[in-house]
């Protein structure tokens, strides 16, 4: 307890100093420490890899003024609280917890360390010293859905989902709506893997989907195992998830969603240095550059590529919202009227499929 | 639900691939336990095999060399277990658990530079006209060499234990080490050889995961397969043929549940995901209810020539 009190006092002193005004004063207190909690290994080639890239960018940007610490493969759930507490105790000024399943643990630790700033990725619960941030991945999913709908020959698209949470369901809906739009015969087969990262299971899931006739595999799990499975199968296309996964292009990987966290991390760490950090809610998409669309490979026909890029530009400019009515829910009830777009509240809590997806969301 | 979407031919083919790692590891552990030694370090040896096999395959470009290196590395690790339990008479359960922890830690250390790298994979064996047969050609005759090796190993293990003199001596050591010793057999050396063999098999199983089934290296990728292999030996009541049945059953349920989900089966997903483990527990209960387990009488008992 003593150690904690000491650190809290230290952190409070630092905050006071930075509020005091001059940058020189803040600098004299040594570098700011930013901590990162990762759900997988930084070598997963996907989600955690990109968060770590963001960390590296921040380090390069700030040089001596920033020290970063991180912990990999922290399980979601109770044990995360220990890891986050440990990081707060070791003197972090701002801690980024980078997976949905750290939500309650982040809040619990944050209440014990009022002077440490916390940033929780993809969550929806905030506090005085806890901000949330996420990216509008569903914008990228709309583009994937368009390419998938155009390119599938069997009209069966496989989707490896992780956990039934709003972020994942949003992605499935967005991809489905846009695949259906360009190909009315398209059908989605969804496997819930109940893991973010288990290469053997992800590979098995991809194989099961391919064996059942899917020639497009979308994944919302973090490893490159499904890419390897598709490559082995031959005539199957995939999309890089969270990271470019360019090593699997031009086939099977025909495009990707790239999470670009670097600028956000730099902005928020700068805010801590300036003493201007406030809890907020950031949800940026293609327009702000937080969601990148990886190079569309030569395996995609020119007209499809042009269509996908046109959609990307429209979304970036704010002219098109991927959830635009008329849309119905899977139970047949009305959701969005003609021309109406979904509000963020509904999207953040999305727990239903749109009409046409013939499956149940596991409860 | 559309069960017709599940193609039985491809299903059997993926079951064979999915079952091979645990089959190899369980066959090795079977021989170890038949010699009277309980090595709980299978998980650690498997993951060591997975990482070393992957590293060597990437560096040399030859997956077969990777398999060989995996077998060597995992049996080197098992040698530590052998020396501790056979010469220094340490507790086998504790040492085995220690071996698992060591293997997991060591593998993530060795594996750091190999994360996110692609490996050369094992080519499918071309069995000529056999592979072109309808149905069975795709189902049974279009796998890589390790799948057939594992099947041959089942037959070889069975024949070795049942028909050869060496097999008889090994079993005698496992049933009563004092009698074997009195007959002039070198109990400690026989057990050490069995432990090394078990390590090699576990290493091959691990390498099959990282080089064929996934194929890539990621930390902790065996995800409990070693423990399943240990359970399989009990499940099989220490017989090679039943290890094969058990491994394919387990692999089968694992693959089938993913296929059922993709086909839209109206069963709770959580139940499907848990089903392989539920089936394993059920079979273990049935076996112990029958009374006769077939466990080697001296299993797990330390031996010293002076006692």
TrEMBL record, chain A:
Top-level division of the source organism's lineage: Bacteria
Keyword field: Signal
Ranges where the ABC transporter substrate-binding protein PnrA-like domain occurs: 33-311
Keyword Signal: yes
Record-level GO cellular component terms: plasma membrane
Entries under InterPro entries matching the protein: ABC-Purine-Binding, PnrA-like
Signal peptide positions on this chain: 1-26
Bilayer-spanning residue ranges: none
PANTHER family, per the entry: ABC TRANSPORTER SUBSTRATE-BINDING PROTEIN
Protein name: BMP family ABC transporter substrate-binding protein
Origin species: Sagittula salina
UniProtKB/TrEMBL annotation, chain B:
Top-level taxon of the source organism: Bacteria
A GO CC term attached to the entry: plasma membrane
Keywords: Cell membrane, Membrane, Transmembrane, Transmembrane helix
Coiled coil stretches, renumbered: none
Subcellular location: Cell membrane
Molecular function terms, GO-annotated: transmembrane transporter activity
Main location as per UniProt: membrane
Family matches, as CDD domains: TM_PBP1_transp_TpRbsC_like (cd06580)
Positions of transmembrane segments: 6-25, 37-58, 64-84, 96-114, 140-161, 188-209, 221-238, 245-263, 269-289
Membrane-topology descriptor: Multi-pass membrane protein
Name recorded for this polypeptide: ABC transporter permease
Organism: Sagittula salina
